[in-house]
Amino acid sequence: MGIAEFLLMSLLVVLAVAAVFMRDLLAATVVFMVYSLLMAIVFTQLKAPDVALTEAAVGAGVTTLLFVIAIAKTDRREEDV
Amino acid sequence: MYRQLALLMVLLVAGAILTLAVTDMPAFGDPGAPAHRHVAPRYIEMAYRETGVPNMVTAILADYRGYDTLGELTVMFTACAAVLSVLLGRKRR
Amino acid sequence: MTTVIIRTTARILAPFIQLFGLYVIVHGPISPGGGFQGGVIVGASLILLALSYDLASAEARAGHAIRIAMDSTGSLLFAGIGLLSLLAGGVFMDYGIIPLPLPAAQVRALMILLIGMAIGVHIMALVSTLFLHMAEDHE
């Protein structure tokens, strides 16, 4: 595993943890979108361009939009439980 | 306190087992891996000759595994119909 | 509601996004991509129009009835091609048996292309419908 792959994978883990622990749900959605884009890059590196295209279009595009609509309809801050 | 320590131990043991299992996996792109020995050789040899489609992924998705794709499409159609019935039903009231 | 810059950019960009989506659908058998990915891209261009203008103008370009009709047409086209091979005397979804004046491999390639287009139409209608109906109350 090269340096670039290692950096990519560690960044993926950091982004995933950040998306879970973020209080601002809109920011968490954006972080999740960046995670999806990096995931698309990882899929390209694993020589699966079909999956990468799907991940970039669905994961980064449509899912983010649906999350944003859901946040706009409910509440932006996560409540303390 | 003891409960949390016990939980931590369980997590560590599970993580160790998973890490061990990962080191046992075949290398990336290994042609001898079990997943690449069952039906993959036949697809690689015959996909272009049988379907005339250079992109093997599309050939498998739409032809060899067409029934699966049809089921996938049905699932999405049903999901869309369910969401629409919920959203439009709320609007009418 | 939005600024002139956003609206102009979206208006110029949308045809190119749609063209790229159609390219991904039609080139599915040759290059990476296919009906699903291309359909999502074409649907995203409609969503872009809805976001930059308003929901009504996107609704005017592709109304509710048209979208539902496209959605159903895509699914029915897929199942219909499968049934076509059943009618021709083969197994369900065995396209090579369909009697066309072509070699069996090319008949299958043609049917794979048709199926890709069916999936593209279906997914395009589905994505835009989900977005437009979920965002309806929030102008």
Notes on the protein architecture:
The complex is a heterotrimer of chains A (81), B (93) and C (139). Chain A is an all-alpha fold and 81 residues long. Chain A has one domain. Chain A is 80% helix and 0% strand. Chain A has three helices and no strands. Chain A has helices spanning 3-21, 25-45, 49-73. In chain A, α1 (3-21) packs antiparallel against α2 (25-45) and α2 (25-45) runs antiparallel to α3 (49-73). Chain A is flat. Chain B has a domain at 1-33. The N and C termini of chain B lie far apart (53 Å). Chain B has helices at 2-23, 40-51, 56-64, 66-92. The model of chain B has no long low-confidence stretch (mean pLDDT 87). Chain B is flat. With 139 residues, chain C is an all-alpha fold. Chain C has one domain. Chain C has five helices and no strands. Chain C has helices at 4-26, 35-52, 55-61, 64-87, 104-134. In chain C, α1 (4-26) packs antiparallel against α2, α2 (35-52) packs across α3 (55-61) and α4 (64-87) runs antiparallel to α5 (104-134). The radius of gyration of chain C is 18 Å and the shape is elongated. The model of chain C has no long low-confidence stretch (mean pLDDT 87). Classes of the chains: A mainly alpha (81), B mainly alpha (93), C mainly alpha (139). The B-C interface holds B 49-55, 57-59, 61-63, 66-67, 69-70, 73-74, 76-77, 80, 83-84, 87-88, 91 and C 28-32, 34, 68, 71-72, 74-75, 78-79, 82, 92-93, 95-96, 103, 105-106, 108-109, 111-112, 115-116, 119, 122-123, 126, 129-130, 133-134, 136.
